[in-house]
Amino acid sequence: MCCPSRVSLWSGQFAHNHNVTDESPPHGSYTKFVSQKLDQNWLPTWLQQAGYSNNYIGKFINGVSPTLKQAPKGFDTAHWEPLVAPNIYTFYDPVFSINNGPLTSYKGLYQTDVISDKSVEILDTLAKNTSQPFLFVISPTAPHDEVWFNGTGTVFTPPVPAKRHEHLFKDAKIPRHPNFNPKHNDKPSWVGTLPRLTESQVSALDAKYRARLQSLQATDELVERIIKRLEHNNQLDNTYIVYTTDNGYHLGTHRMYAGKQTAYEEDTNIPFIIRGPGIAKGKKSNAVATHTHFPATVLHLANLPVPDSLDAHSIPVLENKAVYGKDQPTEAFSVEFWSQAFMENTTARFDANTYKSVRLIGQGYNLLYTVWCTGEKEYYDLVEDPFQIKNIYKSTQPAFLNRLDALLNVLRTCKGPTCRDPWAVIHPTKPSSSSSSSSDKGDGHGKEGKGSVRSLKDALNKKFDRFYAELPKFAFKECLHYYNPTNEEIAPGHTEL
User: Which ranges carry the Sulfatase N-terminal domain (predicted)?
Assistant: First the structure.
């Protein structure tokens, strides 16, 4: 969510590697980002070194303040115009700082409209230098809540639409999927303690849903305007446009009010839409991807070297290019969180919300497995249960769960290549010898080691049952609100991989 996701988007690292794990200090925000010098080696600097003009307008991450003296490296030689606290989340009267100069306030104007006007001006400036490629990030706040810091806490209020859009979607309601405010709730930790939402709470959530739809209409107009301007400047056919976000959002699912700090589908499944040269119109990809895939994908499209340190491959979006460094897509990635959960627009806070999950998607399967800091576990088969209604952890065969435990144990501390191919960590290649090169002893190595185990389907071979049963299991020591590797241990009786 928020800051951790945005840092992953630009660094190509999972949160346990960049360690920006919250949205506010000391474990998150721009303060943590700067203190760890994360702008020294990330996508903007790699593009800058290749001759790109990097430009940014709108929300960056929390904590960009009026006292900021220097733009992040990679955005320090062109146009850097972030929204500045405490007005990052206000829809009217936005405040910007151009290249760390004096603040400019736009009284009475709508934030997305200001960003739209400025974006067109920046595009026109960039069009004058046809020999230099550019990166241009346009980041309006919508449909995020308005956020106010009142001295004693954080106040969330529904997003504010532009006045011209206030009349739209008057009858819209949150889709009543099976997981919306369900009668039965078997969830672990704090989620399982929630009562059903009242009629007044559901009505308020429907109103918030409408406000989110309304606030996005100006963003929709912005996107249309950008495309038309690129076309006017004869740059559309030579430009890749990416549309994505930092996190999903739940409204009433699993009895939760409004928020985004869980591993459930509504919070983690986000749009990633791209158009540009070499991409077939209407093409859909089933590739498993996260924010960490973004830098490799951009570098791949730009025909630039992709650092081996990245935690993810590029997404195979072009018809004529394979995935960087791999002959098949990654099928597993981690979802990790360390902090409280809170229900926006309420005072409710829940401490036991630290968890690690493995998301696994392949031919015929779509799975989510989560270990909570409370010691509780949950497992969903999204092919059979797309709305994650029934936790089938207790009814699932231990031999199957042992495979998921092994993956989670690798992904929780993975870096670079081990994130991209966790199966190779579990089944490393053992040097051949006259006694072992022609057979597999069921230990995960040998002839049928790394080369033969590339997916869950491969790993489910019964000859590996004993091997997986003996592998270490992961557990938290306690529910901390920050990442501390010593708090994430191997369960008693096991050893590290």
Answer: 1-303
